[in-house]
Specification:
Chorismate Mutase Domain, subunit A, D-Maltodextrin-Binding Protein, domain 2, six-stranded mixed β-sheet, five-stranded mixed β-sheet, 12 helices, 15 strands, about 45% helix
């Protein structure tokens, strides 16, 4: 027997009504959880709890919906229910439409109050001063390497890393009309221009490239002047009333950027965690020897290393620092043993944070 479209729609309507009922029940339970947390002083946001939920969604997914799509749906459910307890304020560098804001929503969902900051330093100050519950800061990207300003601030801040976000970077060329006719200047921040050099040189070799402070500023200029186009994230086009000429104009289509989440509450164990730490060594010669020693100690404790680099110090009493990312939580026995061994051989050890590994 042929199933009619009306019958299928009736089935969908019935399922939607059931989903709505379940979401309302979840919201009421979240409110009750909020009352219990308020009485005990427990934090509203537990990144390890949300990470476990999102991983469980993938493990139980029977299809046909894709894992990533289901995680997005459940992240928004958790975000909305969390806001019934208390709406978090999350600081990020830049303005609306920037990559930092994208990373913010990728981590927390959209039911938060976003706080744009003029600089990475202002993000840290907002968290340290209490005007933001959490902050999102750029840490590294595949084209430019680490963000030294963030490293410097992590070294001295009382805040801790509570999460990481790997964000895909999709740059779009946009203008007021959706075409390049009459456009003589392409604006973008300096880093974006570097990431799009080959493409711009091939498709628009005669158009001036002008560096500005941010993608949001580039989009704003394009909205004011029909002779200007911008390269920025797709959300900037919506924010400033522009039309996309072409997406994915960066030279590397698989380009990713890593952001770190900072807050004043340490994250508990999620089961799939990462720990970031910084160690100090006295001079360049010791830096080389210490690197080999640190790697040996970590291997001996059975702790995998995912990132290891030595940097000249910009601040502090030590001339060289070693930044390390390892698998596992500081409360895990192998990591705890490794940290003890490192402390016996390093001049200085600071755990920047243990947090759920990016999904």
């Amino acid at each position: 027997m042929t199933v009619t479209l009306d019958t299928l729609r009736e089935q969908i309507d019935a399922i939607d009504a059931h989903i709505l009922d379940l979401l309302s029940r979840r919201g009421r339970i979240a409110q009750a959880v909020g009352h219990v947390k308020a009485e005990s002083g427990a934090p509203v946001y537990r990144p390890e709890r949300e990470a476990r939920v999102l991983r469980g969604v993938v493990e139980r997914n029977p299809g046909p919906l894709h894992d990533r799509d289901l995680q997005t749906i459940f992240r928004e459910i958790m975000s909305s229910c969390r806001a019934l307890e208390r709406r978090l304020t999350v600081a990020y560098p830049g303005a609306a439409g920037t990559l930092g804001r994208q990373a913010l929503f990728q981590q927390f969902g959209s039911a938060v109050k976003s706080l744009p900051c003029a600089s990475v330093g202002d993000v840290f100050h907002a968290v340290e001063g209490g005007s933001a519950d959490y902050g999102v800061a750029p840490f590294e990207n595949q084209a430019e390497g680490v963000n030294m300003r963030t490293l410097d601030l992590l070294l001295v801040t009382p805040a801790v890393m509570t999460g990481e976000v790997w964000t895909p970077v999709h740059y779009g060329l946009m203008s007021g009309t959706g075409s390049m006719e009459g456009v003589s200047v392409v604006c973008a921040d300096a880093q974006t221009l570097r990431h799009c050099q080959a493409w711009l040189g091939l498709d628009y070799p005669d158009i001036e490239q002008r560096a500005v402070d941010s993608g949001a500023e580039a989009a704003m200029l394009a909205s004011w002047n029909p002779g200007v186009a911008a390269i920025a994230g797709a959300t900037s086009a919506e924010q400033y009333g522009l039309r996309i000429v072409r997406m994915q104009v960066q030279d590397d289509p698989c380009y990713l950027a890593r952001f770190v989440v900072i807050g004043d509450q340490a994250s508990g164990r999620s089961g799939v965690d990462r720990t970031s730490l910084v160690l100090a060594v006295p001079d360049q010669a010791d830096a080389v020897q210490s690197r080999l020693l640190f790697q040996s100690l970590l291997a001996r404790c059975g702790v995998p290393v995912t990132r290891f680099e030595t940097r000249p110090a910009r601040t502090g009493p030590w001339p060289y620092y070693v930044y390390i990312d390892i698998e596992g939580h500081a409360a895990d026995a192998p990591v705890r043993d490794a940290l003890g061994a490192l402390r016996r051989h390093a001049g200085f050890v600071k755990i920047l944070g243990s947090y759920p590994a990016s999904l």
